[in-house]
Amino acid sequence: MARALSAAEEATAPPVLVPHANPDLFGQEAAEAQLLRAWRSGRLAHAFLLSGPRGVGKATLAYRFARFVLAGAGAAPSGGLFADLAPPAPESLSLDPSHPVFHRVAAGSHADLLTIECGYDDKRKRMREEIVVDDVRAVPEFFALTAAEGGWRIAIVDAADDLNRNAANALLKVLEEPPPRGLLFLVSHAPGRLLPTIRSRCQRLALQPLAEATVAGILSRYYPALGADDTDVLARLAEGSAGHALELAHLGGGDAFRALLALFATLPRFDIAQVQALGERLGRPQAAAQFRTFAELLVWWLARLVRAGAGDPAEPALAATEPALIARLLAAAKLDRWVEVWEKVAAFLARADALSLDRRHAIVLVFAALAQTASGQRPDLPE
Fold first, then answer.
1. What per-residue confidence (pLDDT) applies to 88?
2. Cis (ω within 30 of 0) for the bond into 86?
3. Is 116 helix (H, G, I), strand (E, B) or coil?
4. Parts of the chain with a pLDDT under 70
5. Which of 282, 289, 283, 278 is nearest to 248 (CA)?
6. Do the Cβ atoms of 215 and 244 come closer than 8 Å?
7. What's this model's pTM, rounded to 2 decimal places?
């Protein structure tokens, strides 16, 4: 799944990976049209819950609408004697990237826009993994102020799934007493995890996974140097998430996937030198993002192997050698062994990342467990 980029990764990322600076929205025309209709109607909800998988454009749509409103690009229609002289109603939420409002939103310096995200923990010297109540206290204070530019004030919570219990309750108070000319956007990848009272006080707008062809087109636009094979593979790996596809391209996902299949092809032989070389590359301090990408692809492909063993309809091959490889591995060990190693590897790699364990050693242990499984043995991984 797509994740938030670090500051270093964001600095070299294409704009589409940074929602507040992204001028484009792909494949979500229906959701954009729904927001535009709500605006034109003059009966705009005070809060919207933008839901859907990661990386499909939820935050991008929230910032797109925020820019549209803050720029006065479509002042709510009104009647009266001079109604016929009003400019034509806008047909999209798009704002020219050269517009001053676009620049201020991209720079995070627009006085009438507030973004709530996981903040920095001064004690632990790292980003928090949840939004705390102190972060949310800024929202009612923000809405209590008069709009600096005489229009609307807009707050975006990205993502609402990260709210801890106290922060969620604090936000609920804002939803119960909506401010005049104030808009609140909640971005959510898993709306079922939110308090029912929060969901019930927002207008729900569900964004759908993108078509594979749309994702491939986005990859071609932002990474024109990618070969057609890599573009197709990454678009399929992304499973409808443009953000995930671009993240994979940004972090060398095509090369990582080929390296992964090459290592699986050696099983049940455990080529310790080859695995150690991979561990050395992914264990470097600057390779943390590449390690997470490789780990995610490994777990994802094991799930793909398990689905094939469970008799799911055949999925299009991601490489010419993949069908034969899947058939050979499933013949080498029973399905319950592959399910077991999939679950153990997923838990172990997540723990290795969260606890900053030695990534080189983690890679070796994982492929030792995979070799055991491909030999028909039970996989052995630290709990």
1. 62
2. no
3. strand
4. 1-17, 73-89
5. 289
6. no
7. 0.83
